[in-house]
Specification:
The chain has helices spanning 2-24, 28-64. The chain is mainly alpha-helical. It contains 2 helices and no strands. It is rod-shaped and about 70 Å long. Helices cover 81% and strands 0% of the residues.
């Protein structure tokens, strides 16, 4: 899970870098390209965070489930 968290954080930092480059770009096409890249990096980070949240929810449901009493030894 830590790998996913690190990857999402890296993507968010890359998005910030692209935003900065877009703001500094003098060429309109380059500005638009870096704005697009920033959006894509943020979308990928959100997707990773969504997967992480789903995994955590699934783990919580498994841990909260009552023990299966049907498999008792006689």
């Amino acid at each position: 899970m830590k790998d996913l968290k690190d990857r999402a954080e890296k993507l968010r930092l890359d998005a910030i870098d692209c935003d900065l480059i877009a703001k500094l770009a003098t060429d309109d096409d380059k500005r638009k390209a870096f704005e697009y890249l920033a959006e894509q990096y943020r979308a990928m980070a959100e997707a990773i965070e969504h997967v992480m949240a789903q995994r955590i929810d699934a783990q919580v449901r498994v841990m909260a489930r009552p023990p299966d009493r049907s498999k008792r030894s006689p």
